Amino acid sequence: MTPNPPQRPSFAPRNWPGWMAVGLIWLLGQIPQRGGIALSRPLGWLLMKLLKRRVKIVERNIERCFPGWSREQRDDVVRGHFRSLARMVFEQAWSWSASEKRVDSWGEAIDAEYANRLTRGGRGVLMLTCHSTCIEIGGYYAGRATIRPWLVYRPLNSPVIDWYSNRRRRRYSEGGISKRVFRSMVALLAEGGILWYAPDQDFGPSRSEFAPFFGIQTATLAALVHLVEKSGCAVVPMFPSFDEKTGRYEAKFQPPLDNFPSGDTVADLTRVNALIEEHVRQYPAQYWWIHRRFKTRPEGEPPFYD
Description:
Blueprint lengths: L15 H13 L4 H18 L1 H14 L5 H27 L2 H5 L2 E4 L2 H8 L4 E4 L6 H11 L4 E4 L5 H11 L5 E4 L3 H9 L3 E4 L10 E6 L2 E6 L1 H9 L2 E10 L4 E6 L11 H18 L24
Parallel strand pairs: 1-9, 2-5, 2-8, 3-4, 3-5
Antiparallel strand pairs: 6-7, 8-9
Helix pairs in contact: 1-4, 1-8, 2-4, 3-4, 4-7, 9-10
């Protein structure tokens, strides 16, 4: 089963803001990597001044996830996170609009054969990742090294940007598939495709099970386990990262998970959260801390965010 990509929107006046945004994305994609990285520092500072509510969410998340850290350590990661968010703007534009030759020279995928070997054998692969600031450009390197994955994403409100992102992502994937079409995801995996999937967001108690993440009971999407159960696919972790010292990106694959699913959904989600946590501890500033990851609480617990 192959989902249909969005059709190109018209140039009607209602779509003009979207077309202007696409033009800006293209222009940002032409900025040299060094220039984008340099600009991310003042832009990160500006984001902290403009997004004060989000700063509080980031601070709260880091305070609870790293209770042994000093205030200076936490503040340094908060600042680094907003620099990473600013850099993400350029990374996304580069992934969609810069020449492939340029982007290829900035990073690589490591051990992609873990996924390719399974796909060549006819088995579907759920490429497990997490929401990091370099998720888009990490997907670029992962997709260029694997056998054409599909990317699970949330359709954008702007039909123009949604069309453009799907079109440009076809340089390194089959395109995007809405997270709302569960049956299509199962079908793709059952047919031997690769699906790039990040389960680490809070969508409420009806779709989640509580599993520990940084020692905190966290609402974790159970759809991950259901996808594997229904399709019979393998799960291959892949986590992207950016090395600030070298300016290089990596999309690092890990061996497929054995005995997954195990029949115990909470145990499986605990295992997935532990993998994500291990990666986040290596690159703490690059995790998606602006998300209210711990919003849903077990019954009887006080609110996590003031």
